[in-house]
Every structure is written in structure tokens, then in C-alpha cells.
Amino acid sequence: MNAANLISSEKVGLGEVYQVAYGDQDALNTIKFKYKIDGNATTLAGVLIPATQDATNVINSVSAAVISKTLSQYSDVDQKAENVADSVSGYSEVWDLNQTAVNAANLVSIGTIGGDLELDQVAYVSQNASNLIDANGMVDKVVQSATNVANSVGDLN
Predict the structure, then answer these.
(1) From residue 133, how far is each of 49, 53, 62, 70, 140 by CA, in Å?
(2) What pLDDT digit, counting tens, does each position of 15-42 carry?
(3) Strands 47-48 and 43-44
(4) How many CA atoms within 13 Å lie on the side-chain side of 47?
(5) 99 and 30 Cβ atoms separated by less than 8 Å
(6) Which phi and psi (to 5°) does residue 59 adopt?
(7) Residue-wise burial string across 80-106, b where 16 or more C-beta atoms lie within 10 A, e elsewhere
(8) Residue numbers of the chain with a pLDDT score lower than 50
(9) What DSSP line would sit under 65-127, residue for residue?
(10) How far apart are CA 148 and CA 101, in angstroms?
(11) What radius of gyration, in Å, describes the C-alpha atoms of the chain?
């Protein structure tokens, strides 16, 4: 997981918030396997834990009870979140594998919006979220999700 410019202020209000981000974020996971990936083989206290790959990038995120004056977010970034399960043998199987890839830029969660809030969000972003399974046999009970989000405003309530 890569995260930059995160603000969380659930109890205290914020007056002016400025977030600026430039650059690249890469979250990459690769599993190379010969015969099988079997999430059923993993248990914790008798509970089945599926094999999991998570690749997450977050840039410019604000969560606040109140923002009263200015919230400005500017992102000029490339985000790549990628999960790969790659078979290196002739026959291979995959069971119970979860893959999640997420890119997020300029996220806002506000409990109360102040009277004259100026909200600016600019995203010059390239986002690539992907999951790949390369298996030369049976694939069963696999969950894959890939999400890209930019310039999101939500309510904490």
C-alpha cells in the first residue's frame, strides 16, 4: 500500500486544507508458483483464510468532521495497482484466491460543510488497476476487483 497526503480529523474542524501531489505510485504484487495456490490450505484458529493479494494507492485524502473555508486538492500522478499470480509450470491450479487492486486520488469525506466552503479538486491522473491469474488448469473460487477513483466527495454521516 502506498499513501500520501492523508488527513483525518474526526473531532476537530478544519479551516483551510491544501493538498498537492506530483509523481508516481506503484503497488505491485507478484506470486510465481509451480503447481497450485490453495487458499484452503491456510487456516487461523480453525477459520479458513483465502490467499489474498492487495495492491492499493491513495493520494490526497481528507476525512473531517467540519471543513469551514477552503479545501483544495491537486494531483498530477500516475497510479498503478497490479496483482499477478503467474504459473511457471505446465499444469497449475488456483483455489480460493482474492485479488484487489485500487487507485484513489482526491478523496473527501465531510461530516458538515461550512457555510462558504470553497471546494476545488483537480486530477491529472493516469490510473491502472489490474489483476491477472495465469493458470494452466482449474481455477475455482477466485474473486478479483479493480477500482479507480478520482475526485470523490462523500458524507461522513
Answers:
(1) 19, 11, 34, 44, 11
(2) 889 999 999 999 999 988 888 887 766 6
(3) antiparallel
(4) 3
(5) no
(6) -135, 135
(7) bbbbbbebeeeebbbbbbbbbbbbbbb
(8) none
(9) EEEEEEEEEEEEEEEEEEEEEEE-SSS-EEEEEEEEEEEEEEEEEEEEE-TT-EEEEEEEEEE
(10) 9
(11) 20
User: Can you tell me the distance from the alpha carbon of 93 to that of 33, in angstroms, rounded to the nearest whole number?
Assistant: 10
> Domain limits at 66?
2-155
Q: What is the DSSP letter of 153?
A: E
Say which residue the cell 479493480 belongs to: 146
Helix, strand or coil for residue 31?
A: strand
Cα dihedral 69/73/74/77 (nearest 10): 170
- Residue identified by cell 493479494 is 53
CB atoms within 10 A of CB 75: 23
Question: How many domains are there within the chain?
Answer: 1
Quote the Cα angle for 145-146-152, to 5°. Answer: 120
For residue 124, what pLDDT is reported? 96
98 vs 148: CA distance, rounded Å: 18
